[in-house]
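Example S7 (structure tokens).
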């Protein structure tokens, strides 16, 4: 006989303490438990000094190699301190209930632990296969136990099919449910609903659930858990669930807000979309995400930690999770304080949510984007009568953060040195950029710089010509002298290069672009940016800087190209315009030239490393002056003008 210890806590320290106290020899759990234990050990190693980290990784590799070649477990001796924490009697870990990540198995095995993975279901009493101790395979559910048969039903060309089980361990049927029984038991075989394959040594491997497998319209098959593991490499992602919608492969994402806060990243959605796109550039196109939505709270899971995919999809299709939150006990006074009431009054003007609570996320719950954060800071300055640093908007993530920061400001009694209250957009745009920022803008160019720009322009025209040709319309609508704004739709990273190739030399030589430091912040790319007159700015943390540089360029009588959508489309369709362009045009009293770009999405989609052949077009519309129009009116008219140009371009190409 033996003693069973049942613990009502799944916290790592509680489990370890219990094992040491009770002398546990076998730990049985779901893969999620083993993953948590492995994560705790790896985190401990990663937080060690560099020399210790290098030594630990070398020893892990050595342990794995020796165990693979000889079957001898030296990991227990090499990592004795780790084993000591599990108690003197501890012998092995057993995993079941779901597929164990092969990386978790390998790491725990290399640490010297004996990890056993079994497979079965309640309907199979419950074990059907067992990964034999004497000859284990990472990632395998092993071989059938005695008197049990396992086979792959109707395997495809790769050998994958549904796992079926036959033997005395299989149930007789579901109680008083003959139809349900007939669905899963046929000719004595129980069909598990799990997909897998058998290798040449007779070991079985699970690849996923048949009900969870995503079959795209192209016929391509995707196992979501594999892609979820791939995308969770990103430190900004805490949880992710892959989904199939009518638009294709999409993802519900819970960000790691602690990481984003540490990195001063306020715009979670744009950041994660960019990182996913960059990570996926080497994946097959059908495995790339075409859309995502951000969730604030954890995704729903079963008691075994498996994603409730149907429920997640329902939430996703409803637009994400923006449920009304309640005020936690002890938080009642935060919003009732003087600072709290003032902050709520400021945020109410920008929030999409009526009932504001302390833990509301500014982006996800209240709907604030980068521009709204700037407006929030201006409103706070006016309300509290004190200046705030330009970085304030990127340092706060929740309503609680804003209230606590403003309480600190009120307690100090004075404004920060050199910081003045900004009363309007006009005042923000009147402020001169720093000398460091001005150095990024060469409004006066020598002959060598102009020659370099002309060479770049000719090279780009040649490249676009070779890739399919460029059709340019409406150049007569471009004023010969600035200041004015050119405002095209944004399809691809190739758009700015296409505009450079499409504009007449007299206009292009005085045209500047705003470019994200993610693309133009490196030593080589920054040099290219200078020749192409791209101004590298951090749109996330330094939006003030971007706005002031925009105004500075226009005050020098130059032309500024700005994409009103704020970022590239992910599906080829034009997105809603942000009002930043309208603010700049109205406050500086400069005209705007709408422009329509086509073809670059087919040429270079998100995540694509190299361009594909595609015919491109650029159409410039007639300029219009903002006059006395409001920001929203300007934005709507600009959007309508660009859409009309796109329709005209589409009609011209079909004739």
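Recovered sequence:
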């Amino acid at each position: 006989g033996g003693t069973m210890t049942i613990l009502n806590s799944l916290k790592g320290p509680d489990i370890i303490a219990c094992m040491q106290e009770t002398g546990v020899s076998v730990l049985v759990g779901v893969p999620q438990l083993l993953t948590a234990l492995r994560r705790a050990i790896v985190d401990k190693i990663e937080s060690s000094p560099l020399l210790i980290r290098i030594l630990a990784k070398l020893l892990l590799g050595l342990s794995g190699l020796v165990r693979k070649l000889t079957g001898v477990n030296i990991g227990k001796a090499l990592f004795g301190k780790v084993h000591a924490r599990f108690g003197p009697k501890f012998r092995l870990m057993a995993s079941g209930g779901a597929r164990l990540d092969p990386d978790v198995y390998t790491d725990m095995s290399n640490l010297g632990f004996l990890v056993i993975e079994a497979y079965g279901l309640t309907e199979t009493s419950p074990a059907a296969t067992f990964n034999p101790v004497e000859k284990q395979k990472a990632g395998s559910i092993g071989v059938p136990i005695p008197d049990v048969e396992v086979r792959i039903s109707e395997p495809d060309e790769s050998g994958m099919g549904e796992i079926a089980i036959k033997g005395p361990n299989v149930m007789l049927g579901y109680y008083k449910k003959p139809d349900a029984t007939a669905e899963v038991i046929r000719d004595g075989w129980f069909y598990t609903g799990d997909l897998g394959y058998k290798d040449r040594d007779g070991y079985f491997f699970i690849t996923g659930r048949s009900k969870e497998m995503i079959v795209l319209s192209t016929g391509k098959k995707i196992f979501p858990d594999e892609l979820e593991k791939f995308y969770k490499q990103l430190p900004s992602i805490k949880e992710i669930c892959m989904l199939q919608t009518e638009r294709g492969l999409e993802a519900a994402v819970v960000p790691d807000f602690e990481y984003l806060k540490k990195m001063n990243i306020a715009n979670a959605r744009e950041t994660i979309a960019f990182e996913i796109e960059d990570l996926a550039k080497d994946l097959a196109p059908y495995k790339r995400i075409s859309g995502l939505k951000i969730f604030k709270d954890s995704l729903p899971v079963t008691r075994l930690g498996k994603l409730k995919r149907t429920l997640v999809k329902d939430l996703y299709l409803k637009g994400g999770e923006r449920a009304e939150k309640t005020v936690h006990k002890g938080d009642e006074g935060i919003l009732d304080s003087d600072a709290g009431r003032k902050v709520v009054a400021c945020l109410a003007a920008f929030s999409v949510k009526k009932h504001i609570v302390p833990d509301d996320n500014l982006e996800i719950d209240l709907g604030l984007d980068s521009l709204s954060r700037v407006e929030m800071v201006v409103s706070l300055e006016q309300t509290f009568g004190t200046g705030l640093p330009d970085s304030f908007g990127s340092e706060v993530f929740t309503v609680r953060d804003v209230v606590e920061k403003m309480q600190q400001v009120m307690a100090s009694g004075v404004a920060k040195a050199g910081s003045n209250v900004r009363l309007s957009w006009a005042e923000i745009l009147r402020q001169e950029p720093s000398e460091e920022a001005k150095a990024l803008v060469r409004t006066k160019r020598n002959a060598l710089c102009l020659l370099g720009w002309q060479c770049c322009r000719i090279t780009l025209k040649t490249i676009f010509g070779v890739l399919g040709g460029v059709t340019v319309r409406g150049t007569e609508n471009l004023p010969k002298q600035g200041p004015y704004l050119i405002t095209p739709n944004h399809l691809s990273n190739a758009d700015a290069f296409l505009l450079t190739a499409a504009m007449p030399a007299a206009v292009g030589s005085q045209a500047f672009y705003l470019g994200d430091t993610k693309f133009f912040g490196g030593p080589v790319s920054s040099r290219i940016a200078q020749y192409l007159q791209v101004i590298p700015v951090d749109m996330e943390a330094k939006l003030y800087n971007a706005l002031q540089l925009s105004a500075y360029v226009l005050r020098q009588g130059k032309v500024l190209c700005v994409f009103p959508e704020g970022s590239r489309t992910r599906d080829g369709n034009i997105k809603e315009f942000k009002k930043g362009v309208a603010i700049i045009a109205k406050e500086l009293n400069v005209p705007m030239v709408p422009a329509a770009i086509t073809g670059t999405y087919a040429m270079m989609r998100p995540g694509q490393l190299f361009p594909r052949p595609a015919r491109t077009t650029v159409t410039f519309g007639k300029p219009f002056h903002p006059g006395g129009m409001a920001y929203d009116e300007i934005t709507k008219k600009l959007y309508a003008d660009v859409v009309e140009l796109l329709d005209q371009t589409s009609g011209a190409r079909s004739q």
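Notes on this example. The chain has four domains: 12-157+166-208, 214-317, 332-423, 435-654.
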